[in-house]
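Table S2 (continued). Query chain:
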Amino acid sequence: QVQLVESGGGLVQPGGSLRLSCVASGSSFSAYATGWYRQAPGRQRELVASITSSGSINYAEFVKGRFTISRDNAKNTVYLQMNDLKPEDTAVYYCNTNFYLMGFRQDYWGQGTQVTVSS
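Corresponding output:
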């Protein structure tokens, strides 16, 4: 069982920055892939960025050059640095970690943190 707790969301003006943090319980976190997703009202949840246990990173096109994902395995924490925020980045951001158990993907989600970009 893995528990994820996000923090760092809030209200920011366009062009501003926020850093989200996701702290995980469990000693095997460093072996799991982890990602940030977001869901805006009326829209489906979408992948923002992901990082594997070996450090391979993937970004959605709409955040390339603006967001940076990183992880600190010693602290069981994954970060999402968000720069040059736009109103369309407004959403609830969720942390996800996943691994395969006997061939089946196991997904764990945090409770989400609200990011609002508005002047």
